[in-house]
Structure formats: C-alpha cells, structure tokens
Amino acid sequence: MEDDSVFSVQWADLPLSMAGSLSAEELLYRYLGYIRKFTLTLIRPKIVENGIEFRLITTGLSLISFLPPEYSGEFATLRICGGFLVQPRQCDRGELRFGIEHLPGSARASLQLSDFCPLLLGGRSPSLVRLWFYRLTQAAIHRLVTVRFLSLLCHELAGPSAGVRVVNVAVRDGKPV
Q1: pLDDT above 80: residue 91
Q2: DSSP H helices in the chain
Q3: Which of 65, 72, 64 is nearest to 98 (CA)?
C-alpha cells in the first residue's frame, strides 16, 4: 500500500446450502487447525492468556502474535501485536480478519490481512531486493496457505469433486507483492 504496509484478501463464494451455519469464529478456528497441519506442525498456533501466537515448532518464538479475537457481526478479527515476522516499531498495526458474509444466494468466506508491516520489507520504502525477497517467500507462502485453506473448505463442504477456480482480482490500489 502507499504506507508500505501489506494488504491481501482471498475469498470463496459458497452456495448458501453448503455454507450452512458456518460462522466467522468457526472459520478462524478451522484456519488455526489448518496452519498446524499445512506446516506439518512446524508452525503451531497456540492460544495464550493474551491472545494467539503462531509459534515455531516447540520453541517459545512467536512468528506472529495476535490479541484475543474480536467478534463483530459476520467477522472475527485478530489484531497483530508482535512477533518475529513483524517490524518492531509496527507491532501495534495490522489485522487478520475472517468473514462469512451473506450475499444474495451465497455466502462469502474470506480472509483479509491488512495494515501488516512485515520485517522482511524492513520499513518504509523497502529496497527492490527486500521487496522481491518478501514476494518470493512470505507473500507467496501466505497466498498459498490461504488459497489452499479456502479450497479445502470448499471441498469439505461440497465434496472432493467440487470445482475450485482461482481468479486474481484487484480490490485496492497498490504495488503487487
């Protein structure tokens, strides 16, 4: 974005009959379980007294820390509050938001990362090298994880033969990362 923070959103539109009683809270907790499985337990989401941490293996190292979930209507929001992957001076910015929005005839399951300031970018006006390194590592992993999570969700709700199609859509102005 203009302020060199990262914005990313992925969603899946599901027929209402498949979405059933899926809630943003359930989507959040499914995602936490998925992170553990997808990373072969290398990253372990842990619910702690002051929120949720994505910890590396059995260490106490939090890759990213969140305040406790906040629920508002169709959304569950995790506010970023620290972690190794976050720029130290920007720990109080950013959020990961899970949503189940009811649209006419469908439900949209979404994951949105906004105002995130990754350590790999190094701060405002990152160098081209940092930008490419971030793009090829952390950004690529984030996109892969969320797209696969939503695909898996579709297959769990509609069956393994359900078709899933990935479409790139620009929803905000900014530099593609």
Answers
A1: no
A2: 16-19, 24-38, 128-134, 140-158
A3: 72
Q: Kindly give, in sequence order, each residue whose CB lies less than 8 Å from that of residue 54, ignoring residues fewer than 6 positions away.
A: 35, 43, 44, 45, 46, 62, 63, 64, 65, 83
Query: Does residue 18 register a pLDDT over 70?
Result: yes
Whole-number pLDDT of residue 171: 59
Q: What is the pLDDT of residue 157?
A: 82
How far is Cα of residue 92 from the mean position of the Cα atoms in its chain? 17
Nearest to 8 by CA among 146, 152, 167: 146
Q: What does the alpha-carbon distance between residue 99 and residue 13 come to, in Å, rounded to a whole number?
A: 11
The beta-carbon contacts of 59-67 under 8 Å, at least 24 apart in sequence, are 66/96
Q: In sequence order, which residues have a C-beta less than 8 Å from that of residue 91 and are 6 or more positions away?
A: 80, 81, 82, 83
CA 144 to chain centroid: 10
Element spanning 71, H or E: strand 70-72
Q: Average per-residue pLDDT in the chain?
A: 87
Contacts of 33 (CB under 8 A, 6+ apart): 45
